[in-house]
Amino acid sequence: MTISNLPTLDTPALLIDLDVVARNLERMQEKANNYGVALRPHIKTHKIPELAQLQMRLGARGITAAKVSEAEVMAAAGIKNIFVANQIVTKEKLHRLAALSKETSISIGLDSVAAAAKLSEVFAASGLSIEYLIEINSGLNRCGVLPGKEAVELFQAVDTLPSLRFKGIFTHAGQVYGADSLSEVKEISRHESIIMAETAQAFAEVGTSPDIVSVGSTPTMKVWQGHEAVNEIRPGNYIFHDAIQVSLGAATLEECALSIVATVISRPEKERAVLDGGSKAFGLDRGAHGKEMVTGFGIVLAKQAILARLSEEHGIMTLDPKVDLDIGDKVQIIPNHACAVVNLFDRAYGIRNGEVVEEFKIAARGKSQ
Ligand SMILES: Cc1ncc(COP(=O)(O)O)c(C=O)c1O
User: Fold this and answer.
1) Which of 8, 42, 47, 158 could form a disulfide with 364 if both were Cys (CB 3.0 to 4.6 A apart)?
2) Residue 42: CB within 6 Å of ligand 1?
3) What's the pLDDT tens digit per position in 26-73?
4) What is the pTM (predicted TM-score) of this model?
5) What is the domain count for the chain?
6) Is there a domain that residue 246 lies in?
7) How far is the CA of 366 from the centre of ligand 1 (A)?
8) C-beta of 216 in contact with ligand 1 (< 6 A)
């Protein structure tokens, strides 16, 4: 797509290439189908109900959300099967979760007896029950119990609590975003599945088998070769990809569907041009785990330029002096981290062949409770 084909859009504006989205979604669904596993995409990447509905139409089993408020938005849009892949412990959220579960099939993550007790108390008091999946730490060292024995012990400690129904185990090997090479990405992907297979085996040894064994991140799923013990995958970013995925080798630039169009507002020097968007449009991500994975704050398309610095509302590009960019010209940029950027905009514009064909409200943006 070239910027000149775009109609006049005020900027900075968020664009979604719908053909690229369709290809990204179809490929991942095909992968899930080929390996005989369910796809449960994480919607924190796009936060747009219409895109969640598209994922469901293409064959997703349900969706994953990180927050109760995201789940509420998606349930209101008719999504009937939602896994909140997180630890929910505040009373307010647990009551909202209970209300939501009356109309929608909701499951939730658990990694402690304390969280289980709170969950059980609220659901039992409402005369409801909820399915839970035990979160396994496969190396990210965020939430999650250790694989194997520790996971089984948590199950044994909480399963007698009223209103809780054990559904399975899940993990997210997010440490993959610190990988140095594609072969390391592949190794982490293999490890993510093996850890879960071993944990499922530990459950089998005490006479319980998890219905769902769920893994996933975009990089680990892009290189995934399947595993007989795993029956669900949960990538999120794959719908859009971004500069960080490209730097990891998990996506090509052609597979990047999300971009920001911005306008040059100043060209004080031949080597410097300033855009009308800064950290509040492009985000400050440079990689995960404190590691810089990329050059600048996004990939500038079609111009020899680096988005080198950001203030809140200014993006400062360094350029070859010969680059022709005048005040008022538009520039298109693939963001470093698509999931974070979506959360900065109210609306996104769906484009095909450089034409805006659809406008989306980012209905779950800012839904961080
Ligand atoms: C629990 C969980 N599952 C799935 C995902 C999806 O991973 P990705 O964004 O790499 O596709 C995430 C991402 O943060 C996550 O935290």
Assistant:
1) 47
2) yes
3) 999 999 999 999 999 999 999 999 999 999 999 999 999 999 999 999
4) 0.97
5) 2
6) no
7) 18
8) yes
